[in-house]
Amino acid sequence: MGEHKYTGPIAGLFQKMADMIGKDVYYVNFLILMFFTLFEVAAVFFEVIPGTDIEITRGAVWGVLIVVGIIKGYGIAAFFMHLKGDPFIYTRTALFPILFAALMLWGIGLSNPDGIDNLPAWCTPNWDYSYVTE
Asked: Any residues with CB less than 8 A from the CB of 81 and at least 6 apart, and which?
């Protein structure tokens, strides 16, 4: 699977790391994805930055999740979906559904005055039957 060498600013960095540890690019990509997954979980889990009194705000969590999502999306699309080095029309085809997801989120935000903070009743789970306690 890792028979060819990757070039470019980001893929070349992945290739250099793979050459340093003696593994293929897919292994390095897996390690990077796991690192950023831990970073996402930590951003959502912790209320303050560990070892400090700095509070992690909702905006900071959103920012971390969006940035890390873009990084992980690139890693998955470029290497696991083999879009790195393919003609650009394949990348456009793979990214086309994102337009519909963005329009859906935009519509929810515009149709509901509290679209960012509170979802409408039909979109929230019924917490009466859950095991969540306060």
From this structure: 94
